[in-house]
Design goal:
The protein has helices at about 55-65, 90-95, 110-115, 120-125, 130-140, 160-170, 190-205, 215-220, 240-245, 250-255, 260-265, and strands at about 5, 15-30, 30-40, 45-50, 70-75, 80, 95-100, 175-180, 210, 225-230, 235-240. It is α/β, with parallel strands linked by helices. Strands 1-11-10-4-9-8-7 form a seven-stranded mixed beta sheet. The protein has a four-stranded antiparallel beta sheet with strand order 3-2-5-6, with helices on one face.
Length: about 270
């Protein structure tokens, strides 16, 4: 059975697995996306999850969230097997994570403040006044001014949309935040600022971050550890040195290409 290679983080990774995936199989019709995939996400880390286009990076995230049905295997979150959670238990679990979907996925008919309040309305029983205060606090947390709350998504720049979506993901003070291509569509400066924001929030709030990304800048500056998907499995995982040392052809192309070598040169 093919296994991944783990290099780096001498002495092991601190913390404990907050997400544990074992022997996962996921498919659509006759097409198999995941075939015996194993992955641990450690508490308190920022994990960057990479892979070639179409390999299933976002599919794995959605499977963990319960949005895509698996065929076999096990997924544990917070030490609980998702298949064994009693009725009603999933709602309790969902309150402990937040999600930023690709492109932000804001509701176009709601202003910013009400977009941020969507999880509060779903899971909490709060007055409108309190939700308004909390929404403004979340907007401030991601670097936006309170007056942004009255704007519509159509009035926002791409970077602001991502920050509003992140504020919504943080609405319930989650322990885990799932980010799907968070810097996609942003210019290099905006992407760098967003990476810096994620690192700051991870440190100040003690978050665990599962980041699906193709952005080399995010991998170099924000991620504590990286896991690479290929051939339906995690083919390598570890810190940046692990990726640079891998003999896998795709990883060598990805981490030693022209853009990567430019970033490596800056670090030297």
């Amino acid at each position: 059975m093919e296994s991944s290679v783990t290099i780096g983080h001498e002495g092991g990774t601190a913390g404990e697995p907050i997400i544990r995936v074992r022997d996962l199989v996921v498919g659509f019709g006759e097409r198999i996306i995941m075939q015996g995939l194993d992955l641990d996400v450690m508490r308190g880390e920022i994990l960057g999850f990479v892979g070639a286009s179409g390999t299933g990076k976002s599919v794995l995230m959605r499977t963990i969230l319960g949005l895509v049905k698996k065929r076999s295997g096990s997924i544990e979150v917070f030490g609980e097997d998702l298949d064994e959670i009693p009725p009603g238990g999933h709602r309790t679990l969902e309150r402990r994570w937040g999600v930023l979907f690709q492109q932000g996925a804001l509701f176009s008919s709601l202003d910013v403040r009400h977009n941020v309040q969507v999880p509060m309305r779903e899971y909490l029983d709060l007055s409108q006044g309190l939700m308004d205060e909390l929404a403004d606090l979340k907007l401030e947390l991601v670097g936006l001014k309170p007056d942004v709350g009255s704007k519509m998504p159509s009035e926002l720049s791409g970077g602001m949309i991502k920050r509003v979506a992140l504020a919504r993901a943080l609405a319930l003070d989650p322990e885990i935040v799932f980010l799907d291509e968070p810097t996609s569509g942003l210019d290099p400066i905006g992407a760098g600022d967003f990476d810096e924001l994620i690192v700051t929030l991870q440190k100040t709030m003690g978050l665990t971050v599962f980041m699906v990304t193709h952005d080399l800048g995010s991998l170099y500056t924000a991620c504590d550890r990286i896991a690479a998907l290929g051939r339906g499995k995690v083919i390598a995982q570890g810190d940046l040195r692990a990726m640079l040392a891998s003999d896998d052809p795709w990883l060598r192309s990805y981490f030693h290409g022209v853009r990567a070598e430019t970033m490596n040169a800056k670090d030297r």
